[in-house]
Amino acid sequence: NTDLLALDIKYALDNLGQITGEVTNDEILDNIFSKFCIGK
Asked: What is the pTM of this model?
């Protein structure tokens, strides 16, 4: 399920952002999913 995958990626990016001090998860997710055709 792509919704669960996106949620897992968001949590991972949030945690990495806390470690590195950078949180750009929305931009990264937009970049990842712009390569896929995901519709509801």
From this structure: 0.50
